[in-house]
Fold this sequence. Notes:
By secondary structure, this protein is of the alpha+beta class. It has helices spanning about 1-20, 25-40, 40-50, 55-65, 70-80, 90-105, 120-135, 165-175, and strands spanning about 105-115, 135-145, 150-155, 160. It has a four-stranded mixed sheet with strand order 2-1-3-4. Helix 7 (about 120-135) links the parallel strand 1 (about 105-115) and strand 2 (about 135-145).
Amino acid sequence: MSGSRAAIRYAKAVLSLATDQKSAEVVNSDMKSIAKAIAESEDLNQMLQSPVVRSSDKKAVLLAVFKDANVATTNLFDTLITNKRLPLLNDVALSYVHLYDELRGSQVATVTTAIPLTEDLKTKVLAKVKELTGKDAEVENIIDESILGGFILRVGDIQYNASISNKLDKLKREFTLN
């Protein structure tokens, strides 16, 4: 738990600095690409977590991979290295994106469907999320053929399950209880 608290503190500090420098949006983009790169590359993740790899090598790799990163982002690398907290980089990046979205009054609406959402359906989902929460949202579409049809909408702590598989499960439970 202390790791996640530390990550949030670093993320708040970077967000504050980036906001003061009017570069919060650019740094948000950097943090999204850092989180995505770490999630997609097991080698990068292991290198960051490894106590055997020298800090100077880790910094060189980060600067090479994220060569277009904002100054605030590269300063974060330095700070995490100095404080021996570089393994927290992914958590810091994810926390920053979350804090930035909160600051903007935005959120991510995860919609799980059996087939990809059309632009028309995305627009309807965004309107419904705005109606329910009063906040703007970005739609993240997850394809899961096991739900058969319908959708599962998740925004923050709210989940609405209108999938066919959920309805079939309910029917199955009703028949087995009677």
